[in-house]
Specification:
Strand content: 15-25%
Order of helices and strands: HEEEEEEHHEEHEEEEHHH
Helix content: 25-40%
Largest sheet: 6 strands, antiparallel
Radius of gyration: 19 Å
Length: 300
């Protein structure tokens, strides 16, 4: 079973337990990349990326070798590979985070990847260390495959949107801390120091992530019936929330300080790609126009 690039339906309520388990598994792998990869501004060395099979770290240096880790959501295996040719796999199936952690550590040891990480998850309220987490133990393979299909479709549109900007812009990447996909554009100006406040995450992490004025958009498999696309600006300029944004289903969420667009509004649209691109463009213009960005210098 593969992704054909369509927009799968997946109700949040139908896979929430699996989503929360997968969130913790991605934190295990993401922390390996965090520990091994050289620091890049805004923590761009730590996210995962959508691949033709699932989610991957891409190549990461360790010692004199490279390694990568890929969640294969087609065959439902975690694949760990090193540049010297060896490979190990861990089955993606119903099991506690503690068991996934132990099997992954054993595979890493077999490959000579003695990468130390902090085993307490970040950006979640209940941060159970991986080796103690027997609470999160669900894995619905069909739901995970559908989620990957959502990411494949979203990655395609975010990449098109990214290509229109010649200023500083992030890759399209998947942050395992917050479990969402994002692409971020920058005005070129520094920003006020971010106040932080993310659960189980040092304020200094957010200070680095939000060091410069930005407009960010992406997808989170949480809010709404089937997840939601979001867009926000930091710092938020005056009038941002009042800016007109397409399509009609989009709205400004006051408590979260961001625009939201239900995933299902895109999925059921006659032109899903065009509908999402309208949302991305309008919310970017809300940040750029209200924040007096030099658009002529930053856009194609």
């Amino acid at each position: 079973m593969t992704s054909d690039g369509s927009w799968p339906s997946l109700r949040v309520a139908d896979w929430e337990d699996t989503r929360d388990t997968l969130h913790m598994w991605t934190q295990v792998i993401g922390k390996l990349r965090l520990a091994a990869a050289p620091m890049v501004n805004h923590w761009w060395q730590v996210p995962l990326y959508v691949s033709p099979r699932g989610l991957t770290t891409s190549s990461v240096p360790w010692g004199r070798r490279l390694f990568d880790a890929e969640f294969d959501f087609v065959e439902h295996r975690l694949r760990l590979r090193v540049s010297s040719g060896e490979e190990r796999t861990v089955a993606l199936e119903p099991k506690p985070v503690a068991a996934f952690w132990e099997e992954t550590r054993r595979a890493l040891d077999d490959l000579g990847l003695d990468i130390p990480i902090r085993t307490r998850p970040v950006e979640v309220v209940r941060a159970i260390p991986f080796e103690e987490d027997t609470e999160h133990a669900s894995y619905d393979a069909d739901a995970v495959h559908r989620f990957w299909g959502q990411l494949v479709a979203t990655d395609r549109v975010l990449s098109t949107f990214r290509s229109r900007f010649v200023g500083k812009v992030s890759p399209v990447h998947f942050f395992w801390g917050s479990f969402d996909m994002a692409v971020t554009r920058f005005s070129g100006r520094t920003a006020p120091e971010h106040p932080g406040g993310a659960p189980n995450c040092g304020d200094w992490v957010m200070v680095e992530g939000y060091s410069h004025e930005l407009s960010s958009a992406g997808f989170w498999p949480g809010g709404g019936e089937e997840g939601a696309f979001y867009a926000y600006a930091y710092p938020e300029p005056a009038g941002f929330a009042q800016h007109p944004v397409r399509p009609s289903e989009a709205y400004y969420y006051e408590a979260g300080g961001q625009f939201l667009l239900p995933y299902e509004a895109v999925r059921t649209s006659a032109d899903p790609e065009g509908t999402l691109l309208d949302f991305l463009q309008d919310t970017y213009e809300a940040a750029a126009d209200r924040g007096s960005w030099d658009r002529a210098a930053l856009e194609r």
